């Protein structure tokens, strides 16, 4: 999955398992300032020059939706699966992170693409559904 991002970057160098540095495409980068990591099936990246994540993605023609798995499909009538609480918290943290990244992007005056807005709506839906399952009304 990390190849979706690293294959579009210049100056990519592996610095460890699932960890790379690269030239940031969002600014005139002379030395690699973008760190890209894949951890727990998530792609994490950070520009140490301060480029917003959405600008980094836009510079390589990707969106947040491209980096995160699509909505899972469920078969009707199946018995409810047992979920590991740790895995549930990780999933909720990922959805919260998507909302947080989008809020940060909008707060800096950068509009969301349609795909990003759709992914934020999905994250909101998932967080709302989780809250309802816990008996919390939002």
UniProtKB/TrEMBL annotation:
SUPFAM superfamilies: Zinc beta-ribbon (SSF57783). Residues 13-51 form the Zinc finger CHC2-type domain. GO terms for molecular function: DNA binding; DNA-directed RNA polymerase activity; zinc ion binding. InterPro entries: DNA_primase_Znf_CHC2 (IPR036977), Znf_CHC2 (IPR002694). One of its GO terms (biological process) is DNA replication. Gene3D superfamilies: Zinc finger, CHC2-type domain. This is DNA primase.
């Amino acid at each position: 999955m990390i190849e979706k991002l690293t294959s579009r970057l210049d100056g990519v160098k592996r610095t460890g398992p699932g960890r790379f540095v690269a030239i940031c495409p969002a600014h005139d980068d002379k030395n690699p300032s973008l760190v890209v990591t894949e951890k727990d099936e998530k792609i994490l990246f950070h520009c140490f020059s301060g480029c917003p994540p959405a600008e980094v993605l836009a510079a390589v023609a990707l969106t947040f939706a491209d980096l995160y798995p699509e909505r899972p499909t469920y078969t009707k009538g199946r018995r409810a699966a047992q979920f590991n609480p740790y895995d549930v918290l990780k999933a909720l943290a990922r959805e919260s992170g998507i909302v947080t990244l989008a809020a940060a992007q909008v707060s800096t005056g950068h509009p969301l693409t349609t795909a990003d807005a759709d992914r934020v709506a999905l994250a909101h839906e998932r967080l709302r559904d989780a809250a309802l399952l816990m008996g919390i009304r939002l």
